[in-house]
# Entry
Amino acid sequence: MPAEEVTDNPDVSLQHSGAQLRIAAYGPGAENVIGQTDQTDTHYTIANALELGDWEVAEVNPDLQVDVTTAAEPVDARETCYLMNEDGSLAPGAGDCAQFGTKGQQIDDEQAKNVVIVIADGTGDSEITSARNYLHGANGRLEGIDELPFMGMATTFSLEAENGLPDLVTDSSASASAWTTGVKTYDGAVAVDLNGEPVPTLAELARKDGMKVGNVSTAEIQDATPSSFAAHALDRKCYGPEEEKNDESCQGEDFASQYRENGGLGSISEQIVDLRADVTLGGGSDAFDQLVQAGGNWGGNTWTEGDSVLDNAKSQGYQVVTTADELDGISAANTEEPVLGLFSEGNFPRNYEQSIPGIDGATGEAIECSPSPERPDSIPALDHMTTTAMDLLQNDEGFLLQVEAASVDKANHDADFCGQAGEFEEYDQAVQAVRNWVEQSGEPTLLVVTTDHAHTSQITTIDQNTSGLTSRIVTADGDDMVINYATAASNDHDVALGGQNHTGTQMRVGAEGPGARNLLGQIDQTDIAFAVSNSLGLDFVDHEIDLSPQWDSEAQYPVTDSGSTNTAWIIVGAVVLVGVVAILVYTLNARRKRED
# Structure
């Protein structure tokens, strides 16, 4: 919208927005502001702390107390994060940009057996608030993330490749690399530092320690977030081994060293297979159809040149599934027979049909979101994939699982609120699935729930158009809500629907379980890596992971248990039952013979 139309139009205003806000506290009663609250709750927190009320005050829950006297002091990361070496290279390493270094906050030293990290891509406080309004109403509660007892806030900036200074609006791969490696890097980088050198990931540390590992996403499994968990690449678009079939951002002389025929680590798809995560579920089958360009023994597995990545995976022992029913047929997974689920050629279709905003959407008719027929039942829901993954990963040594709801971000880029709402609902259901699994299994599990970056959508005033595009939506309260999209270069649909951009605000981090208190307060995304690694006893600094090309090398990771703990006990129980039945039959037959 032209500037003069904004400044001279009484129907257009510079407005407040309706996102939830941060609240922090220190001192007696401070723990009562942790988690999801309403502003009116603050009144009672203050009144109860001062014993001003004439109402009955709830008893203290010892499980939610926080002893901040043990907390480490934050470091001045500005002195260590923006590093330039004498030769001009830029190389901040593990923990150099973290607020609390590699040792973390040290509030909570309880150890976890398992860790599950659940990500909603492109989901800032505005997206959380609008989804809650739509799904449950303004004073409702999201049944997953709002129930997490501990909340912190994380900065998300990446670093400029040219000078190592902050890039205040990150992309997803640099962001995901921060929490999977503890190292800040440049936009587009996948688990490499500013010099393009690979750095170890949480998944690799867990594999080295004998834990089981899972990687689940509703995006292409080669996309920014899942790839940063499982691979190392100079650019996030280095999907497959055929360079000419990849995006232009992974073509040419600057990226030739990525490919195996040129001595590199290979494409993201090849490296996903190399990691041999026990469970890998998502989209992206198209890139797995690309043909391998260099063959031989790599890390103990044989790659056949000229065969597709998928065919190589099958020949290397992978159990490949492409539908929800096939996934349900899998009873066990380990590194010798890992599960690779590829349920779509690209990203999963969204759950809701696309909504289209307009210049005058705020003053127009409200719309209601409807399920999309493009999301077939053959594609499993995220909560189902999450629960299945945990069942398959459960074992005596513990597991690490990353789960991503990818398309809150993708819908935001498209200015599609209904798409956002449907994908957010799936994300919150996945969080519920983890909490239910942990309660039922009783296993000490750290759950971390966060996002990679904020995004464009804002809640703005009813009946007030903006300089961007707006959609008017009916919420669960039966009231209307206006969502504004105004970060594209133009409001023309051919630009704006797909051209909305990330924003640079800090992000919410929720946590529950052993080590959860170490994610309270103001942290950086890299601090998440150390909260997780410390809770599992993993070490980003002192490790023996070889990140060089693995031609003619033996496997460097141990084989994991083929069955879950539950499965093992079921088998043991069945054997015992058969034995008991056999003894009873033998006893009865012997008695009959004596009686005869």
Summary: The two ends are 101 Å apart (CA to CA). The first strand starts at residue 114 and ends at 120. The chain has two domains: 3-539, 566-596.
